[in-house]
Amino acid sequence: MNTKVIFDTDPGIDDAMAILFAEASSKIELLGITTVFGNATIENATRNALYLKQRFNMSATVCTGANTPLNIAAGEPTTFVHGQNGLGDIALPDTLPITADARSAHDFIIETVRQYPHEITLIAVGRLTNLALALQKAPDIVALVKEVVVMGGAFGHNGHTGNVSPYAEA
To answer: What are the boundaries of each domain within the chain?
Structure first.
């Protein structure tokens, strides 16, 4: 049986590659890509996820998530790493023939976890705001998630968040 995955992400270059590896794996069923502000603006992150879905004929649902953190200032996208568009400034179409699902990322997470109890692996490689919103709205899903995999950065390390220390995962 394949692992059912929701990939919660702020698709910059690194996350785009991780999404494509997940999609290519015969062991993963990529059910959803939920976007969050971080490496790119929420608009760019969602557009990047939709671009990958369309370009690589992926069946995963794409949902737009949080555009700001819950308790700290948002800061700026990491354009010095990921470019203005989040994907290294590769040429991207101005419009795409597909759009994001109308549900918010956190609602998609809640609904999918409830639909597949004890089967969903949440892989969070961006800010954890979508997961926090899902837990605030539906704390019962904690007992229904198979597992949560997090690529964590700094939590207020010297006044910074994200991959800013010699010990951060990037």
So the answer is: 3-162
Prediction pTM value: 0.85
Is the pLDDT at 159 greater than 70? The verdict is no
Q: How confident is the model at residue 149 (pLDDT cuts 50, 70, 90)?
A: very high
- How high is the pLDDT of residue 100? 96
Report d(CA 26, CA 111) in Å as an integer: 24
Residue whose pair of structure tokens reads 């015969």 in the numeric block:
26
Per-residue confidence band for 69, with pLDDT thresholds at 50, 70 and 90: confident
127 CB-contact burial (10 Å; exposed 0-12 / middle 13-18 / buried 19+): buried
Structure tokens at 131: 């997961």
Torsion sign over Cα 95, 24, 129, 151: negative
Q: Collapsing DSSP states into helix, strand and coil, what is residue 62?
A: strand
CATH 3.40.50.300 is the classification of domain 3-162 = no
Q: Rounded to 10 degrees, what is the CA torsion of 119, 125, 128, 134?
A: -30
Closest CA to 20 of 46, 47, 58: 58
